[in-house]
Amino acid sequence: MTRKRRLLALCVTSLICVLSVRVHGQVTSQRLVAASSEPQNWLTYSGDYQSHRFSLLDQITPANVKNLKLQWVYQSPVAGNWQTTPLVVDGIMYITQRPNDVVALDAVTGRAFWIYRYTPNPNRIVCCGANNRGVAIAGDTLFMGTLDANLIAIDAKSGRQLWKTEVATTTSGYSITHAPLVIKDKVIVGVGGGEYGIRGFIAAYNADTGKEAWRFYTIPGPGEKGHETWEACPPKSDAFCDPEAWKHGGGSIWLTGSYDPQLNLTYWGVGNVGPDYAGAQRPGDNLYTDSVVALDADTGTLRWHYQFTPHDVYDYDAVQIPVLVDNWGKTGINALVWANRNGNYYALDRATGKFLLGRPFVKVNWMSEFDERGRPIQTPQPPGQPTYPGNQGGTNWYSPSFSPRTGLFYVSAWEDYASIYGPSPVEYKEGRNFTGGGPRPYAPVPGAPGLARAPINSWTEAAGHGAVIALDVATGDQKWKFNMTDVTDSGILTTASHLLFAGGREGYFQALDARTGTLLWKANLGGAINSGPMSYPVGNRQYVATVSGLSLFVFALDE
Question: Is residue 27 part of a domain?
Protein backbone atom coordinates (compact mmCIF):
# COMPACT_ATOMS: atom_id res chain seq x y z
CA MET A 1 0.00 0.00 0.00
CA THR A 2 1.34 3.40 -0.95
CA ARG A 3 1.86 6.14 1.64
CA LYS A 4 -1.00 8.15 0.15
CA ARG A 5 -3.38 5.16 0.32
CA ARG A 6 -2.39 4.48 3.94
CA LEU A 7 -3.05 8.13 4.81
CA LEU A 8 -6.44 8.07 3.13
CA ALA A 9 -7.35 4.86 4.95
CA LEU A 10 -6.54 6.46 8.28
CA CYS A 11 -8.61 9.50 7.36
CA VAL A 12 -11.74 7.41 7.07
CA THR A 13 -11.78 6.97 10.85
CA SER A 14 -10.25 10.23 11.93
CA LEU A 15 -12.09 13.56 11.67
CA ILE A 16 -8.94 15.39 12.59
CA CYS A 17 -7.13 13.73 9.75
CA VAL A 18 -9.93 14.64 7.38
CA LEU A 19 -9.38 18.24 8.27
CA SER A 20 -5.61 17.97 7.99
CA VAL A 21 -6.04 16.76 4.42
CA ARG A 22 -8.57 19.44 3.48
CA VAL A 23 -6.62 22.30 5.09
CA HIS A 24 -3.75 21.40 2.81
CA GLY A 25 -2.06 24.73 2.49
CA GLN A 26 -0.90 26.83 5.40
CA VAL A 27 -2.06 30.43 5.37
CA THR A 28 1.30 32.11 4.95
CA SER A 29 2.09 35.81 5.20
CA GLN A 30 2.42 35.85 1.42
CA ARG A 31 -1.12 34.46 1.04
CA LEU A 32 -2.51 37.09 3.39
CA VAL A 33 -0.80 39.88 1.45
CA ALA A 34 -2.26 38.48 -1.79
CA ALA A 35 -5.63 37.49 -0.29
CA SER A 36 -7.60 39.42 -2.92
CA SER A 37 -6.14 37.10 -5.59
CA GLU A 38 -7.62 34.05 -3.81
CA PRO A 39 -11.35 34.48 -4.46
CA GLN A 40 -11.83 30.83 -3.49
CA ASN A 41 -11.06 31.85 0.09
CA TRP A 42 -11.96 34.58 2.56
CA LEU A 43 -8.82 34.89 4.65
CA THR A 44 -9.39 37.97 6.84
CA TYR A 45 -12.32 39.66 8.52
CA SER A 46 -12.66 42.19 5.69
CA GLY A 47 -11.58 39.82 2.92
CA ASP A 48 -8.14 41.36 2.41
CA TYR A 49 -5.71 43.76 4.04
CA GLN A 50 -7.23 46.69 2.12
CA SER A 51 -10.66 45.95 3.68
CA HIS A 52 -12.52 46.27 0.38
CA ARG A 53 -15.07 43.51 1.12
CA PHE A 54 -14.99 42.94 -2.62
CA SER A 55 -14.98 39.51 -4.26
CA LEU A 56 -13.58 38.69 -7.70
CA LEU A 57 -16.23 35.98 -8.06
CA ASP A 58 -18.68 36.55 -10.89
CA GLN A 59 -20.74 33.37 -11.32
CA ILE A 60 -23.71 35.07 -9.67
CA THR A 61 -24.68 38.03 -11.86
CA PRO A 62 -27.40 40.70 -12.08
CA ALA A 63 -29.07 38.48 -14.69
CA ASN A 64 -29.22 35.27 -12.63
CA VAL A 65 -29.21 36.46 -9.02
CA LYS A 66 -33.00 36.05 -8.97
CA ASN A 67 -32.33 32.29 -9.04
CA LEU A 68 -30.42 32.23 -5.73
CA LYS A 69 -31.59 29.42 -3.47
CA LEU A 70 -30.89 28.60 0.15
CA GLN A 71 -28.37 25.74 0.39
CA TRP A 72 -27.91 25.24 4.10
CA VAL A 73 -28.40 26.86 7.49
CA TYR A 74 -26.33 26.67 10.65
CA GLN A 75 -28.25 27.71 13.76
CA SER A 76 -26.44 29.01 16.79
CA PRO A 77 -27.60 27.48 20.08
CA VAL A 78 -26.91 30.75 21.90
CA ALA A 79 -29.50 33.55 21.90
CA GLY A 80 -28.47 37.13 21.25
CA ASN A 81 -27.13 39.45 18.58
CA TRP A 82 -24.81 37.50 16.22
CA GLN A 83 -22.16 39.52 14.37
CA THR A 84 -19.61 37.05 12.98
CA THR A 85 -18.10 37.22 9.51
CA PRO A 86 -16.93 33.73 8.48
CA LEU A 87 -13.47 32.86 7.23
CA VAL A 88 -13.23 30.23 4.50
CA VAL A 89 -9.93 28.42 3.94
CA ASP A 90 -9.70 25.66 1.35
CA GLY A 91 -13.30 24.51 1.78
CA ILE A 92 -13.47 24.87 5.59
CA MET A 93 -15.51 27.69 7.14
CA TYR A 94 -14.64 29.11 10.56
CA ILE A 95 -17.19 31.11 12.52
CA THR A 96 -17.55 32.43 16.05
CA GLN A 97 -20.72 32.35 18.13
CA ARG A 98 -21.64 33.85 21.48
CA PRO A 99 -19.98 34.16 23.84
CA ASN A 100 -16.63 32.85 22.55
CA ASP A 101 -17.14 29.59 20.67
CA VAL A 102 -15.34 28.78 17.42
CA VAL A 103 -16.93 26.33 14.96
CA ALA A 104 -15.34 24.65 11.92
CA LEU A 105 -17.90 23.82 9.22
CA ASP A 106 -17.91 22.11 5.84
CA ALA A 107 -18.40 25.11 3.54
CA VAL A 108 -20.54 23.02 1.13
CA THR A 109 -22.89 21.27 3.55
CA GLY A 110 -22.68 23.18 6.84
CA ARG A 111 -21.66 20.02 8.71
CA ALA A 112 -19.76 20.84 11.89
CA PHE A 113 -16.30 19.30 12.12
CA TRP A 114 -15.46 20.59 15.58
CA ILE A 115 -16.50 23.20 18.16
CA TYR A 116 -14.12 24.99 20.50
CA ARG A 117 -15.90 26.33 23.58
CA TYR A 118 -14.52 29.02 25.83
CA THR A 119 -16.31 30.31 28.91
CA PRO A 120 -15.32 33.88 29.73
CA ASN A 121 -14.86 35.05 33.29
CA PRO A 122 -18.38 35.29 34.80
CA ASN A 123 -17.37 38.58 36.41
CA ARG A 124 -16.53 40.17 33.07
CA ILE A 125 -17.77 43.68 32.36
CA VAL A 126 -18.70 44.18 28.71
CA CYS A 127 -20.37 47.05 26.94
CA CYS A 128 -22.82 46.85 24.14
CA GLY A 129 -23.54 43.13 23.83
CA ALA A 130 -21.67 39.88 24.40
CA ASN A 131 -20.53 39.72 20.78
CA ASN A 132 -17.61 38.32 18.86
CA ARG A 133 -17.09 39.28 15.23
CA GLY A 134 -14.71 36.57 14.07
CA VAL A 135 -11.29 34.97 14.03
CA ALA A 136 -7.99 35.44 12.22
CA ILE A 137 -5.79 32.71 10.74
CA ALA A 138 -2.07 32.28 10.15
CA GLY A 139 -0.40 29.02 9.28
CA ASP A 140 -2.73 26.37 10.68
CA THR A 141 -3.69 28.46 13.72
CA LEU A 142 -6.83 30.47 14.45
CA PHE A 143 -6.80 33.47 16.78
CA MET A 144 -9.73 34.83 18.79
CA GLY A 145 -10.13 37.69 21.26
CA THR A 146 -12.48 37.06 24.19
CA LEU A 147 -15.02 38.98 26.20
CA ASP A 148 -12.77 38.71 29.25
CA ALA A 149 -9.84 40.29 27.34
CA ASN A 150 -7.79 37.21 26.52
CA LEU A 151 -6.19 36.27 23.20
CA ILE A 152 -6.45 32.58 22.32
CA ALA A 153 -4.68 30.46 19.69
CA ILE A 154 -6.55 27.39 18.37
CA ASP A 155 -5.38 24.59 16.09
CA ALA A 156 -7.42 24.96 12.88
CA LYS A 157 -7.35 21.22 12.19
CA SER A 158 -8.55 19.95 15.55
CA GLY A 159 -10.03 22.85 17.53
CA ARG A 160 -7.47 22.30 20.29
CA GLN A 161 -6.34 25.34 22.29
CA LEU A 162 -2.64 26.04 21.79
CA TRP A 163 -2.12 29.02 24.11
CA LYS A 164 -3.93 31.78 25.95
CA THR A 165 -2.62 35.24 26.84
CA GLU A 166 -4.27 37.77 29.15
CA VAL A 167 -4.42 41.08 27.32
CA ALA A 168 -6.07 43.17 30.08
CA THR A 169 -8.10 42.94 33.30
CA THR A 170 -11.72 42.23 32.50
CA THR A 171 -13.09 43.33 35.88
CA SER A 172 -11.97 46.88 35.04
CA GLY A 173 -14.13 46.84 31.92
CA TYR A 174 -11.63 45.61 29.32
CA SER A 175 -12.84 43.24 26.60
CA ILE A 176 -12.10 42.15 23.00
CA THR A 177 -14.97 41.74 20.54
CA HIS A 178 -13.36 42.22 17.12
CA ALA A 179 -11.50 39.75 14.92
CA PRO A 180 -7.70 39.99 15.32
CA LEU A 181 -5.43 41.04 12.46
CA VAL A 182 -2.37 38.90 11.64
CA ILE A 183 0.62 40.67 10.08
CA LYS A 184 3.76 38.62 9.48
CA ASP A 185 4.48 36.80 12.77
CA LYS A 186 2.28 39.02 14.93
CA VAL A 187 -1.37 38.97 16.00
CA ILE A 188 -2.76 42.46 16.62
CA VAL A 189 -5.78 43.26 18.81
CA GLY A 190 -7.22 46.24 20.62
CA VAL A 191 -9.39 46.50 23.71
CA GLY A 192 -12.92 47.73 24.28
CA GLY A 193 -14.44 49.20 27.41
CA GLY A 194 -14.46 52.97 27.01
CA GLU A 195 -17.90 53.12 28.64
CA TYR A 196 -16.21 51.93 31.85
CA GLY A 197 -13.28 54.32 31.82
CA ILE A 198 -10.51 52.10 30.50
CA ARG A 199 -7.28 53.43 29.04
CA GLY A 200 -7.41 51.98 25.54
CA PHE A 201 -4.54 50.36 23.66
CA ILE A 202 -3.58 48.29 20.63
CA ALA A 203 -1.10 45.46 21.14
CA ALA A 204 0.74 42.85 19.06
CA TYR A 205 1.54 39.30 20.18
CA ASN A 206 3.88 36.65 18.82
CA ALA A 207 1.74 34.21 16.82
CA ASP A 208 3.70 31.17 18.02
CA THR A 209 3.94 31.96 21.73
CA GLY A 210 1.40 34.65 22.63
CA LYS A 211 4.15 36.85 24.08
CA GLU A 212 3.49 40.58 23.77
CA ALA A 213 5.68 42.24 21.12
CA TRP A 214 4.53 45.86 21.39
CA ARG A 215 1.79 48.05 22.83
CA PHE A 216 0.46 51.44 21.70
CA TYR A 217 -1.75 53.36 24.11
CA THR A 218 -4.60 55.16 22.36
CA ILE A 219 -4.66 57.50 25.37
CA PRO A 220 -1.11 58.93 25.69
CA GLY A 221 0.39 59.32 29.14
CA PRO A 222 2.80 61.97 30.47
CA GLY A 223 5.80 62.43 28.19
CA GLU A 224 4.07 60.75 25.22
CA LYS A 225 3.14 62.66 22.09
CA GLY A 226 -0.48 63.78 22.28
CA HIS A 227 -0.67 63.93 26.07
CA GLU A 228 -0.73 67.74 25.84
CA THR A 229 -4.23 67.46 24.34
CA TRP A 230 -5.46 66.37 27.78
CA GLU A 231 -5.37 69.91 29.08
CA ALA A 232 -5.15 71.09 32.66
CA CYS A 233 -8.34 72.01 34.43
CA PRO A 234 -9.12 75.73 34.50
CA PRO A 235 -8.30 77.41 37.83
CA LYS A 236 -11.88 78.47 38.43
CA SER A 237 -14.90 76.70 37.00
CA ASP A 238 -18.37 75.76 38.13
CA ALA A 239 -18.13 72.50 36.17
CA PHE A 240 -16.52 69.37 37.58
CA CYS A 241 -13.09 68.77 36.03
CA ASP A 242 -10.82 65.73 36.42
CA PRO A 243 -7.09 66.66 36.53
CA GLU A 244 -6.12 63.07 35.60
CA ALA A 245 -8.82 62.42 32.98
CA TRP A 246 -6.36 60.62 30.67
CA LYS A 247 -6.04 57.70 33.08
CA HIS A 248 -9.55 56.57 32.16
CA GLY A 249 -9.97 58.36 28.85
CA GLY A 250 -11.54 55.54 26.80
CA GLY A 251 -10.22 55.12 23.26
CA SER A 252 -11.66 51.64 22.60
CA ILE A 253 -10.91 49.44 19.60
CA TRP A 254 -14.05 47.75 18.28
CA LEU A 255 -13.20 46.81 14.68
CA THR A 256 -10.32 45.13 12.87
CA GLY A 257 -7.70 47.35 11.27
CA SER A 258 -6.20 47.39 7.76
CA TYR A 259 -2.63 47.05 6.49
CA ASP A 260 -0.44 48.45 3.70
CA PRO A 261 2.47 46.01 3.11
CA GLN A 262 4.43 48.52 1.01
CA LEU A 263 4.44 51.13 3.79
CA ASN A 264 4.37 48.49 6.55
CA LEU A 265 1.66 50.57 8.24
CA THR A 266 -1.43 49.22 9.95
CA TYR A 267 -4.44 51.51 10.40
CA TRP A 268 -6.89 51.35 13.29
CA GLY A 269 -9.94 53.37 14.23
CA VAL A 270 -10.09 54.57 17.84
CA GLY A 271 -13.29 54.92 19.87
CA ASN A 272 -14.76 57.81 21.78
CA VAL A 273 -13.39 59.55 24.84
CA GLY A 274 -14.45 58.78 28.40
CA PRO A 275 -16.69 60.07 29.75
CA ASP A 276 -18.63 60.19 26.52
CA TYR A 277 -20.75 63.30 27.03
CA ALA A 278 -19.32 65.26 29.98
CA GLY A 279 -16.78 67.26 28.02
CA ALA A 280 -16.19 69.89 30.73
CA GLN A 281 -14.33 67.44 32.95
CA ARG A 282 -11.72 66.59 30.26
CA PRO A 283 -10.56 69.82 28.53
CA GLY A 284 -8.67 69.58 25.23
CA ASP A 285 -8.84 67.57 22.03
CA ASN A 286 -8.36 64.28 23.95
CA LEU A 287 -6.09 62.38 21.56
CA TYR A 288 -6.15 59.76 20.15
CA THR A 289 -9.86 59.30 20.65
CA ASP A 290 -12.10 59.58 17.57
CA SER A 291 -9.00 59.17 15.39
CA VAL A 292 -7.35 56.89 12.90
CA VAL A 293 -3.82 55.94 13.92
CA ALA A 294 -1.18 54.64 11.50
CA LEU A 295 1.28 52.34 13.30
CA ASP A 296 4.49 50.65 12.20
CA ALA A 297 3.45 47.00 12.06
CA ASP A 298 6.80 45.76 13.43
CA THR A 299 7.17 48.12 16.39
CA GLY A 300 3.79 49.76 17.07
CA THR A 301 5.38 53.21 16.64
CA LEU A 302 2.90 55.93 15.72
CA ARG A 303 3.64 57.33 12.25
CA TRP A 304 0.68 59.65 11.95
CA HIS A 305 -2.86 60.26 13.14
CA TYR A 306 -5.93 62.17 12.08
CA GLN A 307 -8.66 63.12 14.54
CA PHE A 308 -12.13 63.19 13.02
CA THR A 309 -13.95 64.72 16.01
CA PRO A 310 -11.74 66.68 18.44
CA HIS A 311 -13.10 66.88 21.99
CA ASP A 312 -16.02 64.63 21.15
CA VAL A 313 -19.23 65.12 23.20
CA TYR A 314 -21.47 63.15 20.81
CA ASP A 315 -20.15 59.56 21.10
CA TYR A 316 -18.81 59.73 17.53
CA ASP A 317 -16.22 57.02 17.99
CA ALA A 318 -14.08 56.29 14.93
CA VAL A 319 -14.40 52.52 15.02
CA GLN A 320 -15.38 52.19 11.38
CA ILE A 321 -13.27 50.13 8.98
CA PRO A 322 -10.39 52.01 7.27
CA VAL A 323 -10.51 51.21 3.53
CA LEU A 324 -7.35 51.50 1.41
CA VAL A 325 -7.70 52.74 -2.18
CA ASP A 326 -4.78 52.93 -4.62
CA ASN A 327 -4.39 55.82 -7.08
CA TRP A 328 -7.24 57.69 -5.44
CA GLY A 329 -9.04 59.96 -7.88
CA LYS A 330 -6.35 59.16 -10.46
CA THR A 331 -4.03 61.48 -8.55
CA GLY A 332 -1.37 58.86 -7.92
CA ILE A 333 -2.04 59.15 -4.18
CA ASN A 334 -2.70 55.93 -2.29
CA ALA A 335 -5.47 56.93 0.05
CA LEU A 336 -7.33 55.78 3.12
CA VAL A 337 -11.07 56.44 2.78
CA TRP A 338 -13.52 56.47 5.64
CA ALA A 339 -17.23 56.84 6.28
CA ASN A 340 -17.25 58.20 9.82
CA ARG A 341 -19.86 57.98 12.55
CA ASN A 342 -19.85 61.80 12.66
CA GLY A 343 -21.60 61.85 9.27
CA ASN A 344 -18.64 62.77 7.04
CA TYR A 345 -16.84 60.90 4.29
CA TYR A 346 -13.04 61.35 4.34
CA ALA A 347 -10.02 60.68 2.18
CA LEU A 348 -6.51 60.85 3.67
CA ASP A 349 -3.06 60.25 2.20
CA ARG A 350 -2.25 56.93 3.85
CA ALA A 351 1.50 57.53 3.78
CA THR A 352 1.34 60.87 5.61
CA GLY A 353 -2.18 61.32 7.01
CA LYS A 354 -2.66 64.51 4.97
CA PHE A 355 -6.30 65.56 4.74
CA LEU A 356 -7.53 65.25 1.14
CA LEU A 357 -11.31 65.40 1.37
CA GLY A 358 -14.13 65.67 3.86
CA ARG A 359 -17.82 66.09 3.14
CA PRO A 360 -21.12 64.94 4.67
CA PHE A 361 -22.89 61.82 3.42
CA VAL A 362 -25.89 62.33 5.79
CA LYS A 363 -27.37 65.40 7.46
CA VAL A 364 -24.77 67.10 9.70
CA ASN A 365 -25.12 70.17 11.96
CA TRP A 366 -22.51 69.56 14.69
CA MET A 367 -19.96 71.30 12.40
CA SER A 368 -20.08 73.74 9.51
CA GLU A 369 -16.93 73.20 7.45
CA PHE A 370 -13.27 72.13 7.55
CA ASP A 371 -10.36 74.52 7.95
CA GLU A 372 -7.29 74.38 5.71
CA ARG A 373 -5.76 71.60 7.86
CA GLY A 374 -8.88 69.45 7.73
CA ARG A 375 -9.99 70.27 11.25
CA PRO A 376 -13.78 70.54 11.66
CA ILE A 377 -15.22 73.88 12.73
CA GLN A 378 -17.74 72.80 15.33
CA THR A 379 -21.19 74.34 15.78
CA PRO A 380 -22.62 73.02 19.07
CA GLN A 381 -26.42 73.17 19.10
CA PRO A 382 -28.31 75.04 21.85
CA PRO A 383 -29.51 72.95 24.82
CA GLY A 384 -32.63 70.99 23.94
CA GLN A 385 -32.04 71.21 20.19
CA PRO A 386 -31.27 68.20 17.98
CA THR A 387 -27.77 67.34 16.82
CA TYR A 388 -27.34 65.56 13.47
CA PRO A 389 -26.34 62.81 13.22
CA GLY A 390 -27.53 61.29 16.51
CA ASN A 391 -25.27 59.36 18.83
CA GLN A 392 -25.57 56.14 16.78
CA GLY A 393 -24.03 58.14 13.95
CA GLY A 394 -24.46 58.47 10.22
CA THR A 395 -22.97 54.98 10.12
CA ASN A 396 -21.36 52.84 12.78
CA TRP A 397 -19.33 49.63 13.09
CA TYR A 398 -20.92 47.81 10.13
CA SER A 399 -18.46 47.34 7.29
CA PRO A 400 -18.52 49.38 4.07
CA SER A 401 -17.34 48.06 0.71
CA PHE A 402 -15.29 49.44 -2.17
CA SER A 403 -15.58 48.07 -5.70
CA PRO A 404 -12.58 48.72 -7.96
CA ARG A 405 -14.89 47.83 -10.87
CA THR A 406 -17.36 50.67 -10.26
CA GLY A 407 -15.09 53.10 -8.39
CA LEU A 408 -17.85 53.47 -5.81
CA PHE A 409 -17.67 53.34 -2.03
CA TYR A 410 -20.74 51.80 -0.37
CA VAL A 411 -21.99 52.72 3.11
CA SER A 412 -24.83 51.48 5.32
CA ALA A 413 -26.20 54.76 6.66
CA TRP A 414 -28.74 56.15 9.13
CA GLU A 415 -30.30 59.18 7.46
CA ASP A 416 -32.01 62.23 9.02
CA TYR A 417 -31.38 60.88 12.49
CA ALA A 418 -30.71 63.12 15.49
CA SER A 419 -30.22 63.11 19.26
CA ILE A 420 -30.60 65.68 22.02
CA TYR A 421 -27.72 65.54 24.47
CA GLY A 422 -27.76 65.97 28.23
CA PRO A 423 -24.30 65.81 29.85
CA SER A 424 -23.82 65.27 33.55
CA PRO A 425 -20.62 65.02 35.63
CA VAL A 426 -19.45 61.57 36.69
CA GLU A 427 -16.58 60.41 38.89
CA TYR A 428 -14.57 57.40 37.83
CA LYS A 429 -15.06 54.17 39.79
CA GLU A 430 -13.49 50.98 38.53
CA GLY A 431 -15.93 48.77 36.67
CA ARG A 432 -18.78 51.33 36.82
CA ASN A 433 -20.52 53.06 33.92
CA PHE A 434 -18.59 56.15 32.92
CA THR A 435 -20.57 57.88 30.18
CA GLY A 436 -21.38 61.18 31.91
CA GLY A 437 -25.00 61.54 30.91
CA GLY A 438 -26.51 60.51 27.64
CA PRO A 439 -28.61 61.33 24.61
CA ARG A 440 -32.30 61.02 23.99
CA PRO A 441 -33.75 60.52 20.55
CA TYR A 442 -35.21 63.43 18.67
CA ALA A 443 -38.66 62.71 17.26
CA PRO A 444 -39.32 65.20 14.45
CA VAL A 445 -42.86 64.00 13.87
CA PRO A 446 -45.57 62.99 16.38
CA GLY A 447 -45.38 59.33 17.24
CA ALA A 448 -41.95 58.80 15.71
CA PRO A 449 -40.19 55.81 17.24
CA GLY A 450 -37.41 56.23 19.75
CA LEU A 451 -34.06 54.53 20.01
CA ALA A 452 -35.63 51.11 20.53
CA ARG A 453 -37.20 51.35 17.06
CA ALA A 454 -39.85 48.77 17.69
CA PRO A 455 -41.94 47.49 16.16
CA ILE A 456 -40.01 46.93 12.98
CA ASN A 457 -41.10 48.96 9.95
CA SER A 458 -42.26 51.91 12.05
CA TRP A 459 -39.25 54.03 11.09
CA THR A 460 -40.47 56.59 8.57
CA GLU A 461 -39.01 58.97 6.03
CA ALA A 462 -39.88 61.88 8.31
CA ALA A 463 -38.24 60.33 11.35
CA GLY A 464 -35.14 58.99 9.61
CA HIS A 465 -34.41 55.69 7.91
CA GLY A 466 -31.71 53.28 6.86
CA ALA A 467 -30.12 53.29 3.45
CA VAL A 468 -27.30 51.91 1.36
CA ILE A 469 -25.49 54.88 -0.16
CA ALA A 470 -23.06 54.72 -3.07
CA LEU A 471 -20.41 57.46 -3.09
CA ASP A 472 -17.88 58.38 -5.76
CA VAL A 473 -14.68 57.38 -3.97
CA ALA A 474 -12.79 60.37 -5.39
CA THR A 475 -15.31 63.12 -4.68
CA GLY A 476 -17.77 61.83 -2.09
CA ASP A 477 -20.65 62.64 -4.47
CA GLN A 478 -23.69 60.46 -3.93
CA LYS A 479 -24.34 58.36 -7.02
CA TRP A 480 -27.39 56.46 -5.79
CA LYS A 481 -29.31 55.55 -2.65
CA PHE A 482 -31.41 52.55 -1.70
CA ASN A 483 -33.80 53.29 1.17
CA MET A 484 -34.91 50.73 3.74
CA THR A 485 -38.03 50.72 5.92
CA ASP A 486 -35.93 50.53 9.07
CA VAL A 487 -32.41 51.53 10.07
CA THR A 488 -29.67 49.03 9.26
CA ASP A 489 -26.72 47.44 11.05
CA SER A 490 -25.58 45.35 8.07
CA GLY A 491 -22.20 45.29 6.45
CA ILE A 492 -21.85 45.27 2.65
CA LEU A 493 -20.32 42.91 0.07
CA THR A 494 -19.65 43.74 -3.59
CA THR A 495 -18.56 41.42 -6.39
CA ALA A 496 -16.84 41.59 -9.77
CA SER A 497 -20.18 41.02 -11.52
CA HIS A 498 -21.50 44.36 -10.18
CA LEU A 499 -23.60 42.88 -7.39
CA LEU A 500 -24.01 44.34 -3.91
CA PHE A 501 -25.30 42.29 -0.97
CA ALA A 502 -26.60 43.87 2.25
CA GLY A 503 -29.41 43.53 4.76
CA GLY A 504 -31.26 45.37 7.48
CA ARG A 505 -33.06 45.14 10.79
CA GLU A 506 -36.32 44.18 9.11
CA GLY A 507 -34.75 40.83 8.15
CA TYR A 508 -34.40 41.21 4.38
CA PHE A 509 -31.20 40.06 2.69
CA GLN A 510 -30.94 41.96 -0.58
CA ALA A 511 -28.98 41.93 -3.81
CA LEU A 512 -28.66 45.28 -5.59
CA ASP A 513 -27.06 46.32 -8.85
CA ALA A 514 -23.86 47.96 -7.61
CA ARG A 515 -23.93 50.44 -10.52
CA THR A 516 -27.45 51.76 -10.05
CA GLY A 517 -28.84 50.58 -6.68
CA THR A 518 -31.67 48.69 -8.39
CA LEU A 519 -33.14 45.92 -6.24
CA LEU A 520 -32.61 42.58 -8.01
CA TRP A 521 -33.43 39.97 -5.36
CA LYS A 522 -34.38 39.71 -1.72
CA ALA A 523 -35.19 37.06 0.87
CA ASN A 524 -36.74 37.50 4.30
CA LEU A 525 -34.52 35.58 6.72
CA GLY A 526 -36.64 36.28 9.79
CA GLY A 527 -34.10 38.18 11.88
CA ALA A 528 -32.01 41.33 11.84
CA ILE A 529 -28.82 41.18 9.79
CA ASN A 530 -25.98 42.48 11.95
CA SER A 531 -22.88 41.26 10.17
CA GLY A 532 -21.04 41.59 6.90
CA PRO A 533 -21.95 39.19 4.06
CA MET A 534 -19.13 37.31 2.31
CA SER A 535 -18.72 35.06 -0.70
CA TYR A 536 -16.62 32.01 -1.58
CA PRO A 537 -16.60 29.14 -4.10
CA VAL A 538 -16.09 25.43 -3.61
CA GLY A 539 -15.38 23.61 -6.83
CA ASN A 540 -17.17 25.49 -9.61
CA ARG A 541 -19.98 26.90 -7.44
CA GLN A 542 -20.16 30.34 -5.82
CA TYR A 543 -21.78 30.74 -2.40
CA VAL A 544 -22.93 33.85 -0.51
CA ALA A 545 -23.20 33.75 3.28
CA THR A 546 -24.73 36.05 5.88
CA VAL A 547 -25.88 35.89 9.48
CA SER A 548 -29.48 36.77 10.34
CA GLY A 549 -30.92 36.46 13.82
CA LEU A 550 -29.49 33.26 15.33
CA SER A 551 -28.64 31.55 12.04
CA LEU A 552 -26.02 31.54 9.30
CA PHE A 553 -27.62 31.32 5.85
CA VAL A 554 -25.72 30.16 2.76
CA PHE A 555 -27.07 30.72 -0.78
CA ALA A 556 -26.05 29.57 -4.26
CA LEU A 557 -27.51 29.11 -7.73
CA ASP A 558 -29.17 25.78 -8.41
CA GLU A 559 -26.82 23.32 -10.08
Answer: no
